[in-house]
Design goal:
148 residues, two-stranded antiparallel sheet, Arc Repressor Mutant, subunit A, alpha+beta, 2 domains, single chain, 4 helices, 20% strand
């Protein structure tokens, strides 16, 4: 799962897709409303591929967290609202990632991860790998074998 061109810009809601890099920042398009922005050199940009989530004994990448969420939710948006209370968010996140560090991953972090996940799923940036065509090929082979 390559999220190297998806960024979060501090002070701006949602996520952005990098269009081009300039000498002083980047030009990006919002995934929420499609508007283009230009960042200045002092803006804090976070590339989603570079974000890590604290777990007990290690850190895992945000893309790994998204993969686990994708598998847990069977490819759909999360069943919990990011606006839920902190206890519910932590319980949900513990179901998905059983060894996350509860002392260093706050409810606000979980809320942001779920918001980002839902946005990426609705924009079809996050999706299951192309396993469906392989299954279709297997079933078509079976049907060909039964015809013979």
């Amino acid at each position: 799962m390559d999220l190297s061109d998806i960024i979060a810009v501090s002070g701006r809601p949602g996520l952005f897709k990098i269009q081009t890099q300039t000498r002083t920042g980047v030009v990006a398009t919002s995934l929420l409303d499609g508007k283009r922005i230009t960042t200045n050199p002092t803006a804090k940009l976070s590339i989603l591929n570079d974000i890590q989530v604290y777990c007990i004994g290690e850190e895992i990448s945000l893309s790994t967290v998204f993969e686990k969420l994708l598998n847990y939710e069977s490819g759909g948006v999360s069943r919990i609202s990011p606006k839920s209370n902190a206890i519910d968010l932590e319980a949900y996140f513990f179901e998905v990632i059983e060894n996350y560090d509860e002392d260093r991953v706050y409810a606000s972090d979980i809320k942001k991860i779920i918001q980002w996940y839902n946005l990426l799923v609705t924009k079809k940036i996050l999706h299951f790998p192309a396993t469906e065509p392989k299954e279709a090929k297997k079933s078509s082979k079976k049907s060909k074998n039964t015809k013979n």
